[in-house]
Specification:
With 128 residues, the chain is mainly β. It has one domain: Nucleoplasmin core domain (Jelly Rolls), CATH 2.60.120. Helix content is 0%, strand content 55%. It contains no helices and ten strands. It has a four-stranded antiparallel sheet, with no helix packed on it. The two termini are 28 Å apart. 27% of the residues are buried.
Length: 128
Amino acid sequence: MADEITLGANNFKWLHDSNTRGLTLIRNNNSYGTYSLGEEYGTPYVVPASHRTIILKIGFFGNSGDMQIYDSTSSDSATGTVLFDTNSDVDNFQCDVFWELAAGHYFNVTVPDPKTVQVIAMAVETGV
């Protein structure tokens, strides 16, 4: 019998099946403003219908300034629920989180002028 494949981080694990996959979401541009994280550069990730996405780990690389992270129903928008607000400069920081995004939602980040930062999130997308 084959070993079961699990996805996740720390104590949060899911069995890998046809409705579950691991994701790496990035904001990899060097400009300020509000952007949706995506699996590919320039393509915002939106949680698919009948799914949820759980952000498990987030990392900031570079100097972020006062940065906000949103769970939003609009891409590239500083609207919705604020999940995280640095309230100050954050340099090269990462942390474990458990943020659940519903179907149709985007994971957006606002970086102030003139700061540049890369944001990387590890997540699991799974059926509801």
